């Protein structure tokens, strides 16, 4: 059997999946360690028995709806290739709007950025990759996520990042010019049994108590303490959570609160600005 024939056969086998042909190509690229162009020019190349056996195993995993990114251990985000594992969420294109907005607000000035719940480091590394004036700290409660983020940063030759374990702000000791976060925000009750592919992702990366708003509340309620005056917060949320997130930010005194849509047309992020505080040495701020 040659490359073309295997792609045709596996596309039919994966007919339960809308991206059957693309997934078949991704599997063959992964097993043969080849790129898209190679497939085009070498479609008649014969597969070895060992390759066919390996492909068969992976095809079954995909047929059982394991996400292709977990099978190939890779996912592209912000045009960078990230390594992922079963301990990290698969980066979503929906999140790229957060990176875009962060860079727009930061401009070219020197800035420190904190990424809460960094996962494989996709947000932190993407922001850091855009400007050497940025220094990005990524934290996560999951040790394996931190190891993966460090690995990705090194592999992509991004030096203006640091990653460590923290339960949200528990190990944060300084202030930042910007806080970004894509926290877990799915309401578990709503999603139970709805999406088989989600069941492969770590629950700690997906679900949040209080109708999905529990962690967003924790982050916003503590953010001001860790932001410099005039610092920004950008938070990702579910497309139906826009109004609640705006309300939480306004209640905490953030200014310029505004939501933005992702490239799929859904409201996905909300931003807020910590007010400028002019300290008066004659006022006792602790009273
Ligand atoms: C939705 S994922 C986001 C991953 C990555 N930033 C992205 O955008 O693809 C949420 C992340 O928050 C982390 N997380 C969950 N609870 C946390 C906590 N209490 N403190 C810090 N991180 C936490 C999870 O381990 C997971 O990596």
From TrEMBL:
GO terms for biological process: methylation. Residues 108-191 form the Methyltransferase small domain. Residues 6-72 form the Release factor glutamine methyltransferase N-terminal domain. Substrate binds at residues 182-185. InterPro entries: DNA_methylase_N6_adenine_CS, HemK-like, N5-glutamine_MTase, PrmC_N, RF_methyltr_PrmC, SAM-dependent_MTases_sf, Small_mtfrase_dom. Signal peptide: none annotated. Keywords: Methyltransferase, S-adenosyl-L-methionine, Transferase. It catalyses: L-glutaminyl-[peptide chain release factor] + S-adenosyl-L-methionine = N(5)-methyl-L-glutaminyl-[peptide chain release factor] + S-adenosyl-L-homocysteine + H(+). GO terms for molecular function: nucleic acid binding; peptide chain release factor N(5)-glutamine methyltransferase activity. PROSITE patterns: N6_MTASE (PS00092). It is an enzyme of class 2 (transferase). Methylates the class 1 translation termination release factors RF1/PrfA and RF2/PrfB on the glutamine residue of the universally conserved GGQ motif. HAMAP family: RF_methyltr_PrmC. Belongs to the protein N5-glutamine methyltransferase family. PrmC subfamily. PANTHER family: HEMK METHYLTRANSFERASE (PTHR18895), MTRF1L RELEASE FACTOR GLUTAMINE METHYLTRANSFERASE (PTHR18895:SF74). This is Release factor glutamine methyltransferase. It comes from Buchnera aphidicola. The lineage of its organism: Bacteria, Pseudomonadati, Pseudomonadota, Gammaproteobacteria, Enterobacterales.
